[in-house]
Fold this protein.
Amino acid sequence: MPIHVITSQKGGVSKTTITMNVAAVAAEILERVSPEAGPVLVVDCDPQRSAAWWAHYVGADRLPFSFAEANSPAELERLRSLTQFSEIFVDTPGSLDDNARAQAALNVADHVIIPVLPEPLTVAPVVRMIEQIIKPLGLPYITVFGRWDSRNGRRKLNETRTALLARGFPVAATVLRNFEITTNASIEGLLATSYPRSSHEAQRDFVDLTREILRDYLPVAEALPAETPGTTISVSALGDMTVRAGE
Ligand SMILES: Nc1ncnc2c1ncn2[C@@H]1O[C@H](COP(=O)(O)OP(=O)(O)OP(=O)(O)O)[C@@H](O)[C@H]1O
Ligand SMILES: [Mg+2]
């Protein structure tokens, strides 16, 4: 029951987008490779309630995961006892500064996912956060580049990526590209698992990122095969896999 906490020093960097879409893809992958595993849970501890609104627009009957709100450090603490869930993804408020809820979420985390915008100016706050807040916790963590606009070229992405790698920070191989369908997904009640066929590129980014995360935390015995391009739900293209339960 790993608890993944999605957090950042800055607001508007894709925390909620990553939480909702990675949880949706994880739910589909787990249902396929490990049907005996419990459901995925998404927890919104941001008073803005962006994830809760998004879940509302998707509709309870279409959500591929369970959903909960956590309003206090005590409620977050309780997540530790929810052993019925296979993976828990916690979306946190905009900024870690003076934020008791985000700190409380980190206190129950097994793994931290840190979204980063591919712009050189974002490096300093990310370095500060990792060195001062994440590393002292001794938790595994991964940085993920989000909202990369490929039309602007790779220069800024590469510079930012190199700066993080040079400090020894883990960086996800998957870069989440900027797609209009992702910008509008919350209000349209869409999750990456329900993107139309025409948006399979946008969907693929979330599938690839989720695979990276599940590879570390499932653990899956074999490498996940590449998905068939153009499938509506890419995870459905996965072959049979053996999961080493209990490892
Ligand atoms: N890959 C993407 N492609 C297009 N739009 C994106 C992508 N990722 C995020 N966005 C958009 O960027 C905006 C910020 O994303 P999001 O709300 O997920 O960030 P956040 O870190 O949760 O923000 P906050 O700190 O306010 O909670 C949203 O409008 C979202 O739709
Ligand atoms: Mg958010």
Q: What stands out?
A: Residues 15-16, 46, 50, 91 surround magnesium ion (ligand 2) (CB under 6 Å). The mean pLDDT is 86. Residues 15-33 form the longest helix (19 residues).
